[in-house]
Amino acid sequence: MAFQQRAKPDGSRKRTSGFSPSRGSKSNESDAPGNKPAREKAPPTPERLEQRARNVLLHQLARSAKSTQQLRQILEKREIPSEIAERVLERFTEVGLIDDAAYAETIVNSRRNFKGLSKSAIKRELSEKGVPAPLVEQAIETITSEDDLAAAQELAARRIRQMSTLTREVRERRLAGYLGRKGYPSSIVFAAIRFAESQVDAN
User: How confident is residue 42, by pLDDT bands cut at 50, 70 and 90?
Assistant: First the structure.
């Protein structure tokens, strides 16, 4: 590395490396990559928001049926303005992609056939999912108390077969809790337990 001799005021020379110290300045700092101001994104147009809302609904409905209220809440979480969301929801309803009545019937059939839920439990679930009250009543109106009793008896008879090693008291307590979680009232629960125990005694 070459060194230069720099003259001192007294006539002597000072040895230097030839490199000048870095000189910071405001202009240099502002030119640094990390200090450049970020460009603001333009807000999406109503057309783009509407297309986004349609895509969200199609994706959700492809996964599973949902009520209008459930889909409305999803669009709200995606930050779709309410006026655009309502317009798209209305359009999907007009073409039959959203049908709260059909959705309610699907829930009734599923919960009765696969979960054995009572009429009151199904009504509560439909209400929680945002199905309008008139459509809820329409969907469950064909379920009678006799239907509930028959369903509870079937559940209890099937469940009690898994409790053969338990005492009668323990069986009945567990059956009562099991049927209660399905939404059956106490009158039907006790009747179903008596039926199940009679099946055990008959065998």
Answer: confident
pLDDT for position 160: 95
Are residues 101 and 131 in contact, defined by beta-carbon separation less than 8 angstroms?
A: no
What's the pTM value of the predicted model, to 2 decimals?
Answer: 0.75
* Statement to judge: residues 174 and 139 lie in one domain: no
Q: Does residue 119 lie in a domain region?
A: yes
Average pLDDT over the chain reads 87
From 37, 63, 98, the end of a domain falls on 98
Domains identified in the chain, total number: 3
- Tens of pLDDT, residue by residue over 162-172, are 998 999 999 99
Q: Looking at the DSSP assignment, which residues form a beta bridge with residue 13?
A: 7
Instruction: Give the range of the structural domain holding residue 192, as residue numbers without chain letter.
Output: 145-202
Q: Spell out the SS3 assignment of the chain.
A: CCCEEEECCCCCEEEECCCCCCCCCHHHHHHCHHHCCCCCCCCCCHHHHHHHHHHHHHHHHHHCCCCHHHHHHHHHHCCCCHHHHHHHHHHHHHCCCCCHHHHHHHHHHHHHHHHCCCHHHHHHHHHHCCCCHHHHHHHHCCCCHHHHHHHHHHHHHHHHHHHCCCCHHHHHHHHHHHHHHCCCCHHHHHHHHHHHHHHHHHC
